[in-house]
Amino acid sequence: MSTQSNLLLNKIITNIVKVGASCLHLEVGSKPIIRIDQKLFNLDDQPVATKEFLEDIVQIILTKEEAESLAKNKSLVITHSFEGDIRFKVHIFYQRQTVSLLFTYIPNVIADPAALGLTKEFIDLVNRKSGLLIVAGYHGSGRTSTVLSLLNYINKTESRYILTLERPIEYILTSGKSIVEQREIGRDVDSYLAALKFIKDSDVDVIFLAELGEAAVLQTVFDLIESGRLIIVITEADSISDAIAKLVKLVPEEEGDKIKDTLAEVLLGAIVQQLLPRRGGGEVTVMEILVANSASKALIKESRFAQITSIIQTSRDEGMRSLDQALIELIKTGEVDYHDALSVAVDKTNFQVSAQKFHILK
User: Fold this and answer.
1) Among 302, 318, 348, 362, which is most buried by a count of CB atoms within 10 Å?
2) Average model confidence (pLDDT) for the chain?
3) Is 270 helix (H, G, I), strand (E, B) or coil?
């Protein structure tokens, strides 16, 4: 292990946080690359990364058990804290038989839910004693940040027992009015399913589940909700209808009707989000928001998932918002550039019409 490598890594980490970078890419034969406002930049003032340098970094940041896991599986995701309480999620993997690393910055400030764009009606759902909240999007869309914002809101305003199940633990939550426990899959407990089964006989009120990958986990989630727990889950999807459809597809087809009925009964709300460049620098979260009502629940039972979007579009007074409606609002406030918004709009023709109506077509 090289002291020089350790010093160089800490220097790079400190500098990229200062310039507001969200990611650092390190691979053999290339200069370090950082991402700022969704754009990639070479760190030209830094040396080209060597095989020895990256192997030194792996030795510096991994425990013995983590190093053994990397050697066996050829990939690993961990969190690591540097000097100054700087925290990163680190993806370590191999390409062309050499190690590469991706560092993703974890801010130490948890945003307020309203500041992220969540409506009051959706935020109020976390006051319910039981039910299911879905937070969806793709990797890098800020899903974990949104969930932790909701959990921190509960932690500051209510006296409840909160448990998070994550792999790895990204944000550290300190108990406030609530008790907060965070368990890491693979370290504190073997699997999500094992953790959930243990919870059945515990005093937990609120559960955050960072993955939902198999039918047995989904069924256990439903059982826990029926016993009086509020559960927030993360999944990958590009729309709310897609997120719901993917949950239903986790179970065998012959059990589909039962799962749809249960999902319709327990669902409180769902969001799908992505990040866009903010005018003036940084990123802004844009969200499609569903606050489940009788109409959307009926569509779930009937497998008419695609029509949920229509319910969202016509229910703004209930705290719902389509992605395109959210984009229009962000353009009107000047937070997002019109062309950036248009690039991700769902219905580009109607979006352009709406933009023209509000005189924001630029």
Assistant:
1) 318
2) 94
3) strand
